Amino acid sequence: MAGSRLEKLGTVFTRTRDLLRSRVLAKAQKPLWFDVYATFPPLREPVYREPRQRYGKVKDVVPPILYQEDEIRATFYEAYGNGPKAFELSKLNFKSTCQRFVEIFNELQKEGKIEPEKLFEETGKQLLAEGIILRRKRTANGAQQTHQEARTRDLVLEMNLQTMLEERQEQKQDQEEEHLESTDVKKENPLS
Question: Rounded CA gap, 108 and 125, in Å?
């Protein structure tokens, strides 16, 4: 029992008592609380007990919490990403672009002058009027278009390189032929 570290086997008192009996702990190392506990033991021994299993499904009493602002934030991050600037957490009164967007969205919604379908776009225009420029994230179609443009650019570049290489090889062959002809002429006329 002295080598056991399991709290399930015995109590702290019984384990300490056994360590003292087996002289693993010296009398000088005896804890202060040991004599007090031996003199005034608890009414109920603090023994580890397995918790009783509950039958049935335990229901979560906390419902999922979703606010209207969460939906607005989700659409903002989906459309614009994190916004144009980074969060400045060192400032206590800092409001992120998203938070400012939510506030303006709620103000415009309370006024009720703008249709709900156009409210998101109008909020973006309002932020633009305040000097905050929002850039939409690339959509999947935009990413595919840029990928296709890059592929066509690469193909054109490859074709240009191939034509340049062929021209260079032709020039080299012409130079070699001229060199061979000039050496042949020198062999025929060594004095000239």
Answer: 12
